[in-house]
Amino acid sequence: MSLLVKKTENELKQLILEALGKAIADGELSAEAIPDFNVEIPQDRANGDYSSNAAFMCARSFKCAPRKIADLIEKYIDLGDSYFSECSVAGAGFINFRLAPSFYADILLDIEKLGADYGRSNYGAGKRVNVEFVSANPTGPMHMGNARGGALGDCLASVLDMAGYEVEREFYINDAGNQIEKFGLSLDIRYRQLFEGEDAVELPEDSYHGADIIERAKEFAELYGDSYLDRSEDERRKALVDYAMPKNIESMQENLTKYRIEYDTWFSESTLHKGAVDEVIKTLTENGKTYEKDGALWYKNTEVQTEILLSQGKTQEEIDKLELKDDVLIRQNGNPTYFAADIAYHKNKLVTRGFDKAIDIWGADHHGHVARLKGALSAIGIDPSRFDVVLMQLVRLTRNGEAVRMSKRTGKAITLTDLLEEIPIDAVRFLFNMREPGSQMEFDLDLAAEQSSQNPVYYCQYANARICSILKKLEAEGKSITDASRDDLMLLHEPEEKELIRHLASLTDEIILAAKNYDPARITRYAVTLATLFHKYYNACRIGVEDARLMAARVYLCECVRSVMVNILTAFKITTPDRM
């Protein structure tokens, strides 16, 4: 929460403690230690802006009915120059408090003072966090899961940054292992088919059949003709991969840049096979977590996870139902598996590069891999709590209420490139962060392209543009707007004004909660609510009133709303046009 809100809550707690102290001093309560109690913002503010359970928590200590204690707190509390104007008691001992005009004024002054830093905090205490997301195989175009993962990962990184963490964005390039062998085979066959005919050599069912493979093979053939047909298969496939892989990675980088995602690091899996993979396998073996079977080296996943689950209170019967299995680390052909490389990669993040936390964005279909990798990290001496995974559900594209699976342009599955060509990037980034990562998502292509209040991002951008329009209109009318003083801001007492300012006051707390829960959707929803409350305020309270002081205060409020909206949208790399 903002420093001012935290200060306000601490102040209220101290006022209640002082009131209880006075009641004890006057002999109306016995001299007992005062237990801890809460002050909080109630969901329903009908009875007050804050409430406290102090009377209920103190009942046992003072051997007294909560209602009597609450009445004594109301009697002895001195609100004086505090941020509270009223204390009242309800029911069996509920204590409610109303905020004073000074609170609302100081929130606005705080927003103006902090500017672009309003909403930021030091909650993360500068801890280093690595956020890895998208990490699509460089063997083909990026799909809808990558589109959602890109928006989610990038905006989560922004939320963590605002919450006081030192954040680095990372893309893991899967440029080694089985998928690269399959990539080379697919390119090789398509290359040979160009000269020998499609019937001469058949593409296996489990190869890559996309048009992009044919395109890369054609490009290679244009450069080298049929000269590679006489080379060995290994040499030809290596040459094809060495040509096509950088092209695909460059294409991914271009598309992600267009999507407004800039990575701090592009990390190649292949670099791990220069010693790092061997090192973790050696450590696992030394720790007794591997064995040989059928010519392969296996990791004792069942044993490791059983130990962890038993320590967490699970019964053996519960564990048996999970049907845990061991994992291959080194195949019969001597090549390490993707799992072995994954262990080495996360050791690199958490040990070699020293991040305090590694956060990965994965598709929900990888949920079974989370416990395995956490267990493996534990088996090599790394605290698994330093590694978190955000599991993201699939996206269902719709148009006119019907599911859409194919691109109008290509007739193939819709890719990230297709999406960005059809839908404004602002809408894509915002709408992909309207739901929690674990929620299945329906992305309405019609709504995303619509320029109306039905489109959430347009609705938020319009609030910003409307404020700009209001200020220009007042200027055109020759209204003289002076800088609002604190006393002027204390004139903002209409319900819509107070509700709007209270929402502005909650931004820092919302950002911290979004960071704690790895849920940037909290912030997009906050922005939509801010736009809603502003439009409600605008319709209820005329800005250009005759009272110069009130007009100055209302203009100041408008500018604070605009400042906060710009902060949020800018952090999520969404534009804030002045006119719409």
Task: Please provide a written account of the structure.
By secondary structure, the protein is of the alpha/beta class. The chain contains 22 helices and 15 strands. The strands form 4 sheets. It has a 5-stranded parallel β-sheet, with helices on both faces. It has a 4-stranded antiparallel β-sheet with strand order 1-2-4-3. Strand 13 (395-399) and strand 14 form a beta hairpin. It is flat, with a radius of gyration of 30 Å. The relative contact order is 0.10.
Query: Helix fraction?
Result: 40-55%
Task: Report the structural category.
Answer: alpha/beta
Question: What integer is the average pLDDT?
Answer: 94
List low-confidence stretches. Answer: none
Q: Tell me the Rg in angstroms.
A: 30 Å
Q: Please tally the helical runs, counting DSSP H or I stretches of 4 or more residues.
A: 22
Our estimate of the beta-strand percent is 5-15%
The rough form would be described as: flat
- Strand tally is 15
User: Termini, distance in Å?
Assistant: 32 Å
Instruction: List the strand order in the largest sheet.
Output: 7-6-5-11-12
Major β-sheet annotation: 5 strands, parallel
SSE map:
Blueprint: H1 3-25, E1 39-40, E2 50-52, H2 54-62, H3 66-76, E3 84-90, E4 94-99, H4 101-114, E5 128-132, H5 144-162, E6 166-173, H6 178-196, H7 211-224, H8 233-258, E7 265-268, H9 276-286, E8 290-293, E9 296-299, H10 301-311, H11 316-320, E10 327-330, H12 338-352, E11 357-363, H13 367-379, E12 387-392, E13 395-399, E14 402-403, H14 416-422, H15 425-431, E15 441-444, H16 445-449, H17 456-476, H18 486-489, H19 495-505, H20 507-516, H21 521-540, H22 548-571
Parallel strand pairs: 5-6, 5-11, 6-7, 11-12, 13-15
Antiparallel strand pairs: 1-2, 2-4, 3-4, 8-9, 9-10, 13-14
Helix pairs in contact: 1-3, 2-3, 5-20, 6-7, 6-8, 9-12, 10-13, 17-21, 17-22, 19-21, 20-21, 21-22
